[in-house]
Design goal:
124 residues; seven-stranded mixed β-sheet
Length: 124
């Protein structure tokens, strides 16, 4: 059974950093696009970042460009999200997802496996 487990969330002050990790098990995802999404209370789930299997061209939401970096370690079936210069508006539950194709897509429907999420709270 495929399982994605996120970790690394927490409470941080504005301007701080966090590194999220997502460990995948029950399958091999080296050829799948992997993504990070987030959902704040009362809002829809939104795209944050994604990376294709080749890791050459990551994809970022405009709101996080220049602050967040997505990477992956295919040997360990793990994807990371380094978040710097955090802002209060980054506060949300962050989800890891494994995609249906090798592309790092930005739409929820492109992903068929999801983790349970890790909470990120940024105080002002």
């Amino acid at each position: 059974q495929v399982q994605l487990v996120e970790s690394g969330g927490g409470l941080v002050q504005a301007g701080g950093s966090l590194r999220l990790s997502c460990a995948a098990s029950g399958g091999t995802f080296s050829r799948n696009g992997m993504g990070w999404f987030r959902q704040a209370p009362g809002k829809e789930r939104e795209f944050v970042a994604a990376i294709g299997w080749s890791t050459t061209i990551p994809n970022y939401a405009d709101s996080v460009k220049g602050r967040f970096t997505i990477s992956r370690d295919n040997a360990k079936n793990t994807v990371f999200l380094q978040m710097n210069s955090l802002k209060p508006e980054d506060t949300a539950l962050y989800f890891c997802a494994a995609g249906r194709s090798p592309v790092g897509a930005s739409t929820v429907g492109a992903y068929n496996y999801w983790g349970q999420g890790t909470q990120v709270t940024v105080s002002s």
